Amino acid sequence: MCLAIPAKVVAIDELADNATVELGEVRKAVSLALVENVTVGDFVLIHVGYVLNKVSEEEAQRTLELFAQAGVTP
């Protein structure tokens, strides 16, 4: 089983095909190699340094709320 975490895209480096994502106070560079048409402000699912797909802001918030209810801090 794998766990993908939703995060918000705050910057994109097109030359490196990377995005900077933000989850709370944490920012991390992740690869965009698997997904096209990601823009700043999009919410994405990330797993082991890769964006797997885009999700709605509502879906991202719902998932983060479920993590919080389970006592998990991504």
From TrEMBL:
InterPro entries: Hydgase_assmbl_chp_CS (IPR019812), Hydrogenase_HupF/HypC (IPR001109). GO terms for molecular function: carbon dioxide binding; iron ion binding. Gene3D superfamilies: 2.30.30.140. One of its GO terms (biological process) is protein maturation. Belongs to the HupF/HypC family. This is Hydrogenase assembly protein HupF. It comes from Candidatus Thiodiazotropha endoloripes. The lineage of its organism: Bacteria, Pseudomonadati, Pseudomonadota, Gammaproteobacteria, Chromatiales.
